[in-house]
Amino acid sequence: MRVLRGRAETREVDGEVTAAMLSETAETGEPAVRVWTPHRQVAFGRRDARAEDFEVAKSVARACGFEPVERSVGGRAVAYTGTTVAFARTIPLEDMRTGMEARYAEMTEAVQRAFWRLGVPAQRGEPPRSFCPGNYSLQWKGKLAGVAQRVRTGAALVSGVVVVDDHGEIADVLDPIYAALDVPFDLDSVGSIAKVGGDADPGLVVETIEELLVGDAEPTVEQVEASTQVERIDADERAEYVGDRDT
Predict the structure, then answer these.
(1) Is 182 part of any domain?
(2) Whole-prediction pTM value?
(3) Which domain holds residue 44?
(4) Looking at the 3D structure of the chain, how many domains does it have?
(5) Which pLDDT does position 107 carry in this prediction?
(6) Average pLDDT of the segment spanning 218-223
(7) What are 4-26's pLDDT values in tens digits?
(8) 242: in domain
(9) Is residue 247 situated within a structural domain?
(10) Phi and psi at residue 232, to the nearest 5°
């Protein structure tokens, strides 16, 4: 199993690193795992981009010091502060029409067990009016994590986000953004590991989730250098997406 560590120099290249994971797993049949802290940004989903006041929402993000980006997987807007942790695992597929629920369940259980190791008794579900609402979330006195899935011929990408700390800053930036998008949101629904007294060191969170996602596989570690250059995926090579849920 390939294990990618670190982040690229720019937001754009960093996103391409994860996209390339999916393409390479489809081509080689080798699974991959990546757990890291993305650049400070607000990542908008495809439904957000269709909202009447999407440009207003992006302007709000910039005014709050978050660069707006658009992503092709997941639901509604998610904020990354720089300590927020993202996770991704690519899985080779023989039939892209089967196994979606099992992949969601396996990822959610692995991240839940990581929370338990970090001292947070996270449970399935989420509070009402949470950020990026979906069926595969984890909560404990607020939403802590969400999971999404992207599928193409030959491989699936199961990914998501964990709020480590900065729950207040995340709530403050998402509140006016969700208002502009006309999406219900409750500031108090945002949880974090720090908020409930868990071990909120981002490095330890990354290490713990990575260990659970790798499991018993033999890892081959690759460092994502700041200068990493990733070949862009041509339009006709892009994945077919199904079942986007959560983050």
Answers:
(1) yes
(2) 0.91
(3) 2-237
(4) 1
(5) 98
(6) 96
(7) 999 999 999 999 999 999 999 99
(8) no
(9) no
(10) -70, 145
